[in-house]
Backbone:
């Protein structure tokens, strides 16, 4: 990792400024690590900017923004229109927590940058659809925040306690409360963030959800069923959902007795049915998802299926899960 940090540091130092972009529907890991990098770049006396789109229903990020404001931390946020006022010839674009072009916050502007770096922890299964200076992809790491903690240690720097809190919340979310992809390094990162002032009360507040969204999820959880001895399944209705809605339900099903793997099927849009799969670690859900054209990790995988009904996808998946 140190080689990467050395390279990244010299790239930042050579740049007029640094623009940071994460994925669409930004989450706490992407946001926390963006803020950490933002502070790091500023500490080099360089201007930094974070791309952020309209946050309609993103409660966690809305909470995080409020806490930044309360702490009087000014962050310069950009969108796909006003970035042009700040972009220089040698601006560095750092992409965090994603590499797939279609999943970027603003995919259409990435080709405007001649200097792009990608730092991600998702399994890479396609080539990157835009030119990059270098890519650091570490699928075995819990979160980008874990990488950012290592970077802070490497630089011997700290971040504001509110940013540290958001980073800690990001690690908690990405590891499903320190349950998956969690190593000694993950706990060390959490310990470091606590040491530099992460506030565990604020962290809980950031992670709160609305009563409505909780109840809506419980409605589906209630309808879940066992496919076999160790696998639970949940089928949503015909409404359109976000990937993360399915993921959260899958993670919840893992809490139940006997459940070692869970599969949630729902519709993303008119054409696309999506399966979100989770495992506590004994069953490799990636294997099942790759049989349906998807991918991911042992404990965390998914697939998108075009032009099939939810029932067709359900039947196909049950066949695969039961080895028929
Ligand atoms: Mn992440």
Residues:
């Amino acid at each position: 990792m140190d080689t990467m940090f050395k390279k990244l540091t010299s790239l930042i130092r050579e740049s007029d400024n640094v623009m940071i972009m994460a994925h669409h529907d930004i989450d706490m890991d992407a946001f926390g690590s963006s803020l950490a990098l933002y502070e790091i770049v500023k500490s080099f006396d360089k201007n930094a900017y974070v791309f952020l789109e309209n946050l309609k229903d993103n409660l966690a990020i809305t909470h995080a923004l409020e806490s930044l404001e309360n702490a009087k931390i000014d962050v310069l946020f950009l969108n796909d229109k006003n970035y042009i006022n700040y972009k220089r010839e040698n601006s560095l674009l750092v992409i965090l927590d994603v590499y797939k072009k279609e999943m970027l916050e603003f995919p259409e502007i990435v080709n405007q940058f001649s200097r792009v770096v990608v730092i991600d922890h998702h399994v890479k299964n396609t080539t990157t659809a835009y030119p990059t200076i270098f890519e650091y992809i570490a699928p075995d790491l819990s979160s980008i925040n874990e990488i950012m903690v290592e970077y802070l240690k490497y630089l011997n720097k700290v971040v504001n306690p509110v940013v540290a809190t958001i980073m800690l919340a990001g690690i908690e979310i990405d590891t499903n409360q320190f349950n998956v992809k969690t190593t000694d390094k993950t706990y060390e990162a959490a310990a470091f963030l606590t040491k530099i002032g992460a506030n565990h009360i604020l962290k809980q507040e950031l992670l709160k959800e609305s009563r409505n969204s909780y109840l809506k999820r419980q409605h589906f959880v209630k309808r879940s069923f066992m496919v076999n001895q160790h696998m639970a399944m949940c089928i949503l209705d015909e409404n359109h959902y976000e990937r993360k809605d399915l993921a959260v339900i899958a993670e919840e099903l893992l809490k139940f007795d006997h459940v070692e793997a869970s599969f949630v099927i729902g519709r993303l849009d008119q054409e696309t049915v999506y399966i979100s799969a989770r495992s506590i670690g004994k069953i490799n859900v990636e294997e099942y998802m790759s049989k349906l054209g998807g991918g991911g990790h042992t404990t965390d995988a998914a697939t998108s299926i075009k032009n099939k009904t939810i029932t067709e996808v359900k039947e196909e998946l049950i066949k695969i899960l039961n080895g028929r």
Remarks:
- DSSP finds eleven helices and twelve strands in the chain.
- The domain at 212-321 is CATH 3.10.310.30 (Diaminopimelate Epimerase; Chain A, domain 1).
- Residues 29, 97, 121, 143-144, 174 surround manganese (II) ion (CB under 6 Å).
